[in-house]
Write a structure and sequence with these properties.
With about 290 residues, the protein is α+β, with helices and mostly antiparallel strands. It is built from eleven helices and twelve strands. It folds into three domains: about 45 residues, Uridine Diphospho-n-acetylenolpyruvylglucosamine Reductase, domain 2 (2-Layer Sandwich); about 120 residues, Uridine Diphospho-n-acetylenolpyruvylglucosamine Reductase, domain 3, CATH 3.30.465; about 110 residues, 2-Layer Sandwich (Enolase-like, domain 1), CATH 3.30.390. Helix 3 packs antiparallel against helix 4, helix 9 packs antiparallel against helix 10 and helix 10 packs antiparallel against helix 11. The N and C termini lie far apart (about 55 Å).
Length: about 290
């Protein structure tokens, strides 16, 4: 490692001051599950590390004005404990549970998973489906960006060298809305995500799709919405025929997106399985309540 200084930050103000002072020479560390590996493999060589793991404002989850507000240093275990039993957010619970081992979930943080902007970040598709936004701080103040834009780095939404993710926030789901998540990894244990889908699905009492927001991971350069599938599903009864049609729509979209890629044949087969799991899980939930 080439780290010359290490700071145990005690406040958000201290962190943004340090980031402003050291600019590109500083890195934030919370859980360190990705950062330490990158340091050991010499993929990064910051002169300064700023530990934010003890800042209480970044380690809490709260509900305010109809939104769930999650601090960037909240661990996946903490998130799972908080939303466990909330059937409407089962997809977010499943996404958090799918990340690494229990030890990694105990240390790894939601902000770190998002901040690395990996197309395989398990937490990002369900949060995009939920319409999540990020609050990001710097010496210049606080700005808000949609996670969807952040992942795609649209309009300068990506994280700058002197910025810190404060919170991840999204509206609480209504009673008839349900978040799903499905994942196909390289192996069952400790899988690095290969393909994921997540959707917020809103149905009426007759199983007609009132609204749907769907996001996929690892079938593009970044996690992204699937507007063609959303448009196809809206207004239809969620049944076997509709689900089969949605699979065809997503495969057609993926064929265009990944044309010429060696992984396309594998992903065409895989996406059918996980999209069906994503949509059938909503029907399964209805049959159990």
């Amino acid at each position: 490692m080439s780290v010359e200084q290490f700071f145990n930050a005690e406040s958000i103000e201290e962190v943004v001051d340090l980031l402003d002072q050291y600019k590109g020479d500083a890195k934030i560390i919370a859980g360190g599950t990705d950062l330490v590996i990158a340091l050991n493999n010499k993929k990064i060589s910051p002169k300064v590390l700023i530990d934010i793991s003890k800042i209480e404002d970044l380690r809490k989850i709260e509900e305010k004005d109809g939104e769930l507000i999650i601090g960037s240093a909240v661990s996946f275990t903490h998130l799972m404990d908080y939303i466990k039993g909330d059937n409407n957010l089962k997809g977010l619970y499943d996404a958090a549970r799918s990340i690494g081992s229990p030890q990694i979930r105990n240390k790894g943080t939601l902000g770190g998973n998002i901040g690395h902007s990996s197309p395989a970040a398990d937490s990002t598709p369900p949060l995009i489906a939920l319409g999540a936004k990020l609050k990001i701080a710097s010496k210049n103040g606080i700005r808000e960006v949609l996670l969807e834009d952040y992942s795609a780095k649209k309009n300068g939404a990506g994280l700058q060298e002197d910025e810190l993710i404060l919170t991840i926030e999204f509206p609480k789901l209504r009673k008839n809305q349900f978040l799903t998540f499905s994942k196909l990894g390289l192996r069952k244990a400790l899988a690095i995500s290969r393909i994921t889908t997540s959707a917020v699905i809103e149905l009426d009492q007759n199983k007609n799709v009132i609204d749907v927001v769907m996001c996929s991971g690892s079938i593009g350069r970044y996690p992204m919405r699937e507007p063609e599938v959303e448009e196809y599903l809206k207004g239809k009864i969620l049944n076997e025929e509709t689900i089969e049609g949605a699979v065809e729509v997503l495969i057609d979209s993926m064929d265009e997106r990944l044309e010429g890629r060696s992984t396309l044949p594998y992903k065409r087969i895989a996406i059918e399985s996980i999209l069906k799991e994503t949509l059938y899980s909503r029907l399964k939930f209805l049959s159990e309540v």
